[in-house]
Design a protein that fits this description.
Blueprint: E1 4-7, H1 11-23, E2 27-33, H2 40-44, E3 47-52, H3 63-72, E4 77-79, H4 89-97, E5 101-102, H5 107-114, H6 116-124, H7 141-151, E6 155-159, E7 169-171, H8 174-192, E8 197-201, E9 206-215, E10 221-233, E11 236-242, H9 249-264, E12 270-279, E13 284-290, H10 297-304, H11 308-316, E14 334-341, E15 343-344, E16 350-351, E17 354-355, E18 358-360, E19 367-371, E20 378-379, E21 386-394, H12 397-410, E22 412-414, H13 420-427, H14 430-434, H15 441-445
Parallel strand pairs: 1-2, 1-4, 2-3, 4-5
Antiparallel strand pairs: 6-7, 6-8, 9-10, 9-12, 10-11, 11-14, 12-13, 14-21, 15-16, 17-20, 18-22, 19-21
Helix pairs in contact: 4-5, 7-8, 12-13
Length: about 450
């Protein structure tokens, strides 16, 4: 096992990794930008190194600075968390070339699944069902119109190197498609340095369901059941739950087997997530594979009893993972996660950075909070607006909704604006309570807050 690791991230995920490492008896090194010098993730680590200015490109995306910090603190491994460099194949290669273990999958797996078009081609060979669409980048507007004619509207434009909803546009006609192609290409180039986009059929009555997979270097590969991430705004997840109210044991087994096929197609090890679109009739299609720990990994931990971050570290150290056989995976109870963001949801979800003067976190049975904030701290305008991940656990879905509703009513984060009131509205909505929602849930029922969605 490692003696010391560096955590190449910030905020709540850095604290989460720090906790897992300390419980394994591993010392930690935090890296931080000048804007984060007083952050909690810096205080809880055994050592800390400043790696640059507030902008991500000067710090958390600065590979030479991170590697220098790793070398001067003599760490054996680097955990990238999620976001920033977590799915950067070049960073994984640099770590390995410097004889520092990368706590994640191989650079080859990251690269093959990171390019969405390449990923589609790879899993197609493994007989994984795909959303109908193009397999090559869109060449020009005529090519786009021809593809859309074949697929029939509505269609969705996606960035090949994309993620987080960037470079994505839904189109219902030719006029919208032509203008959206150019916008999506510009956005993809700015966000990922790659302007390539492709087109898929857009299903309007669908759910977003993902399967957590876990594999080690000893040939063991299992799935840890599903998470339902259907409640989204502009392809950004707001609420996740496990298990999905739309998945029965037979479908769960089938989706899990397909997820394993997708992971095997790239010789995958460590934690990863295979994302699917699930239609009303039970048909499902591969969307993408995230080659990292997910933001919402905590709800899988609640219903399986596994610590996924510890498993990541164990696997990176070359040891077998804790559970090696699929039939040993347990699914107990129901878990929900609400992403609490510093956003004014009644003003088009405008960012709401600033100092937190009053902070009271809910507690009691069934509550877990992963956060990096406290009273007196500042939510920075330079990074993601997430304040906390509020998770609840109950014996079944009805029970966990009651637990989460109570926790949201207790939660105080002031004076900045947060999404706490929106989550209260969602959990009290009868459609959500029945579990009969689709990806159009937020724009359809809360569209008055979304000026950017027509």
């Amino acid at each position: 096992m490692f003696k010391k690791i560096l955590i190449a991230n910030r905020g709540e995920v850095a604290i989460r990794i720090n906790r897992a490492a300390h419980e394994l008896g591993i010392k930690t090194v935090a890296v931080y930008s000048q804007a984060d010098k007083d952050s909690l993730h810096v205080r809880v680590a055994d050592e800390a190194v400043c790696i640059g200015g507030p902008l991500p490109k000067d710090s958390y995306l600065n590979i030479p600075a991170i590697i220098s910090a790793a070398e001067i603190t003599d760490v054996e491994a680097i955990h990238p968390g999620y976001g920033f460099l977590a799915e950067n194949a070049h960073f994984a290669e640099v770590c390995e070339s410097c004889e520092i273990k990368f706590i994640g999958p191989s650079a080859d797996s990251i690269r093959r699944m990171g390019d969405k078009m390449a990923a589609r081609e790879t899993v197609k060979k493994a007989s994984v069902p795909l959303v109908p669409g193009s397999y090559e980048r869109v060449k020009d507007k005529d090519d786009a119109l021809q593809i859309a004619k074949r697929l029939k509207y509505p269609v969705i434009i996606k960035a090949s190197a994309g993620g987080g909803g960037k470079g994505m546009r839904v189109c219902h006609n030719d006029v919208r498609l032509v203008s959206a192609i150019m916008t999506a290409e510009r956005e993809a180039e700015a966000a990922f340095g790659n302007s390539a986009v492709y087109i898929e059929k857009y299903f309007e009555k669908t759910r977003h369901v993902e399967i957590q997979v876990l594999g080690d270097r000893h040939g063991n590969l299992i799935h840890l059941n599903e998470r339902d991430c259907t409640i989204q705004r502009r392809h950004q997840k707001l609420i996740e739950e496990s298990p999905s109210p739309a998945v029965d044991p037979k479908l769960r087994r089938k989706m899990g087997e397909v997820a394993i096929k997708a992971a095997q197609a790239v010789n995958y090890f460590n934690a990863g997530t295979v994302e699917f679109l699930l239609n009303e009739d039970g048909s499902f299609y591969f969307l993408e594979m995230n080659t990292r720990i997910q933001v919402e990994h905590g709800i899988t931990e609640l219903v399986t009893g596994l610590d996924l971050v510890k498993e990541q570290i164990i696997i990176a150290a070359g040891l077998p993972m804790t559970i090696k056989k699929q039939d040993k995976v347990q699914l107990n109870g129901h878990a929900l996660e609400c992403r609490i963001n510093a956003e004014d949801y009644q003003n088009n979800f405008a960012p709401s950075p600033g100092r937190i003067d009053r902070y009271y976190a809910p507690g009691g049975p069934g509550i877990r909070i992963d956060t990096h904030v406290a009273a007196g701290q500042v939510v920075s305008p330079y990074y993601d607006s997430m304040v906390a991940k509020l998770m609840a656990y109950g014996k079944d879905r009805d029970d966990v909704i009651k637990v989460m509703t109570r926790a949201l009513d207790e939660y105080i984060v002031e004076p900045i604006k947060t999404t706490i009131p929106l989550h209260r509205e969602i959990l009290r909505n009868p459609i959500f309570k029945r579990g009969q929602f689709y990806t159009d849930f937020i724009p359809r029922l809360f569209g008055k807050y979304l000026k950017e969605q027509s």
